[in-house]
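S.,

Sequence below, as promised.
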Amino acid sequence: MSETILPVRPKGMRNHIKNTFLSMLKKKPFPKIRITTLCETAGIARATFYAYYQDIYDLVDDIMDDALVFLDSITDRTCHETFEDLWDVVRQNDLAVFKAYNNRLPPCYRLIDIPKYHPLVQDDTIVTLMMKKIFMMEKGHFIAYMAEKQGVSAYTSENIFWSIINGSMAVNKKIGWCKNDEWYGLQLQLLRFTMYGLEGLGNTGNRLHPRSDNQLNEK
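The prediction came back faster than expected:
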């Protein structure tokens, strides 16, 4: 017996399309999801899909925005943006303190808190898009902080930040996006490794790569 598809009001159509896509993503990788199949599963016409989205990548971008907006709403941004509190927590090397700090961790450490969006970060294609979006959203804060506190050039800071995001995503993928005591202990030690390394750069950061920001912009 085929499943009965209830009509969806226009006001909720965008959410219906997004939820259908997320459900499909649990069963098959993103490159194998076609708009035709998505529309059939959602019980809508292709014209309806295109009334809301230019293509399937536009849909994925909208879902990623939803995830990051929600994450932003449950994150203490003022503490996170200055990085000072995170430094203090890492230096204490206390698992209980670090767990209590969870709601102020950067986005690449908090995506694991939103089960609805786990299919995004578990997909190899979409997780790359997600990393790029987080990178563009957060890199300005990181670059400014590293320039002020460590004297590191924008070029060096930008590439270090890209490495941090990739590393965080890779570790979460390796341990199956499971947030438990083992996760907290591992992330704390990885953050200690990263942050003491950043602190060690000091004012030598600009000498790590002599390229100027003007040269970078010419690329």
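The two ends are 58 Å apart (CA to CA).

Coffee later?
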